[in-house]
Design a protein that fits this description.
The protein has 294 residues and is an alpha/beta fold. It contains 13 helices and 8 strands. Bound molecules: 1,6-di-O-phosphono-beta-D-fructofuranose. 1,6-di-O-phosphono-beta-D-fructofuranose binds at residues 29, 31-32, 35-36, 157, 159, 242-244, 269-272.
Length: 294
Amino acid sequence: MDSLSSSKKRHLKKLICPGIRGLKFLFLPIDHGLEHGPSDFLENPPSIDPEYELSLSMQCKLSGVVMHLGLAEKYWQRKQFKKRVNLVLKLNGKTFFGDDSEAFSPLLCSVEDGVKLGAEAVGYTFYVGSPKEADDFRQFKKVRREAEEFGIPLIVWSYPRGRIVESKIGKDSWATVSYAARVANEIGADLVKLNLPVNENENEKELNTSPFKNYLPYEKISFLDKLFWVREAAGAVGALVSGGKYKNEIELLENIRLSNRAGFDGIMFGRNLWQRPYDEAVSLIEKIKRVISD
Ligand code: FBP
């Protein structure tokens, strides 16, 4: 991240999570109400009120929350949060009802909206491999340029998605997640958010096809070595790992330990934190901080 402008560095410095050894980020996303609908909150009904996530972020001194414009304006701007919780404004989004085989996430607001609100960074979901990828490249180009002009960091959710990815090798394969990491590096992200790959490739047959066949001799390497490769692919871009669906504490902490060893720069966990009762989430965050510091 050395090559970033001084303005971007200043913003990123504010987002570094205090109380952890190393320069690490711990973000709390709450864009699920748009992406999945309120059903995600049924696991822990108080979490439907964005004050739940904002309070958690404030109490645990996380890097910040990630939300769409409506929540940012109506909840984050409340005086008890605005000065104490950092905001990452999510710029694009879609509902669950769209055609995921042609995944595309249209813009809902601009980088300028984020700057006016006082966000420390902006977020953009890019669907690698979707049949609508060309539209995504065009849309992203403008967002990236605007982020450069305003000197605000751009975090890219780099997610392999769509019918071609599914029919070839699967969205969570080691090969596709590495590809998504590299794409973020190529297109000019400042930070990238990646899903953890699954250990085995989802569709063995398709590994025989180019460009994935080069992975075949490496199928038996350890999961940690696969994570190292994903991290390598992200290159100069800061890499964050996402949490995915609710997991038990042991599995979650092990994932964090491994991604930390592989050189990831932090986490962005939503459901795994706010789907837990408040006190349990606070104590889990303490454990996460300890694992990362170790
Ligand atoms: P989680 O930690 O809950 O997985 O959140 C990460 C996230 O990227 C959210 O920002 C986003 O709403 C959601 O996952 C999208 O997940 P998917 O595209 O798999 O439905």
